Automatic annotation (TrEMBL):
Species this chain originates from: Nonomuraea roseola
Protein name, entry field: PucR family transcriptional regulator
Gene3D superfamilies linked: PucR C-terminal helix-turn-helix domain
Lineage start: Bacteria, Bacillati, Actinomycetota, Actinomycetes, Streptosporangiales
Domain RsbT co-antagonist protein RsbRD N-terminal, chain residue ranges per copy: 22-160
Alphabetized Pfam families for the sequence: HTH_30, RsbRD_N
Top-level taxon of origin: Bacteria
PANTHER family in the cross-refs: CARBOHYDRATE DIACID REGULATOR, DNA-BINDING TRANSCRIPTIONAL ACTIVATOR ADER
Amino acid sequence: MSEPLRLAGRAVHEVLDGQAVRLARELVRGFVAEIPFYRELPDEELTSDIVQITELNLRLVARLLRERRAPTTAELAPLRASAVRRAQEGVPLEAILAAYQQGAGRIWDHVLAGAAPEDLADALAAGRLMLGYTEAVTAAVCAAYQHERESLVRQEQHARHATISALLSGEPQATTGIRLAARYLVLSVTLGAHPDERSATIAARRRLHRVREATQRFSAEPVLSLLDPTGGLILVPDLAWDSAGALVAAICEAAGVEVRAAGEVAPPEGVAAAARLTQEVLDVVHLFHHPPGLYRLADVLLEYQLTRPSQAMSGLATLLDPLTDNPDLLRTLTVYLETGLDRRRTAERLHVHPNTVDYRLRRAVALTGLDPVDPAQLQSIGAALAARRVMNRPRPAPPSSP
């Protein structure tokens, strides 16, 4: 067996073994003083678990110095187990590594104290052994911590998906692992495409990550979501409707694209119905080309009703059939209603003279018998245009220049 390493006339391993208990407590006090997160740990954990693993490390270092070798996989098992516990407790990995690095530095300072020039060879050998110990411990702790964190994340994701499934199936009592909120803001959203994204897959992942982060800031509890790059469903715990507009604005800013959303607030047992309704409202918003923003049923009552199946739908759509072969007339009538019966704005949007608008409107009235100046007939025209859109009747081509 090799001669023991000596510094200042003392066998290094004997110094560490003989003072392991005192040094462990001293090191833990240093962790608390210099590593902020350790100050948040309970006293009983610091004085038992943390002190014990620190003492174990000291005795392991002493053994390695005595036998002049690197630690074995078996010897590192308690350190890996400790890293797993810290991961479960939510201790940041950087705090754990800081403790190991700080501990190794103070151990080295302790054994090197009083060393003389003639101890140089043994000091260099001890330094190499300490470096090998630090590298082995860092690798083992990081691997164990990361594996446990990934396992915890998978469990959390599974619990969230199970909760969403239970809520959407109308069986909130079947949820496990996540505490249900008293109410949820149920939000169906669509995200527009970003024109400057060159790498669609990577950009989409980043956008979804930003959106999830933005939504989570609106709740202290986990936000549940089913999202893909085009949009999806978001359930925000205990968020009142008054905050829904700010949430949609935050999503828009995070995504960097246009966002259309439909929302309702519902208790857990009402989430399934609210999710169906908000998706239907969002479909109406897109069908009628409403601008980006937040909507609820009250904002699209007429359009929503017109999209419900009924025998009247076909009859409404046929009111404007005489204009099917005259796309310029149908387009002009449509824009005229969209601009609030403003002939000048209609002319600007169609890039024609206002007199051309007047002529086309007179032709439309003559062919259909419906005059937009008459309030009763104006309602019929609006309903007929909506019915044609819902039934996917042929849309007029862009008007040709007069």
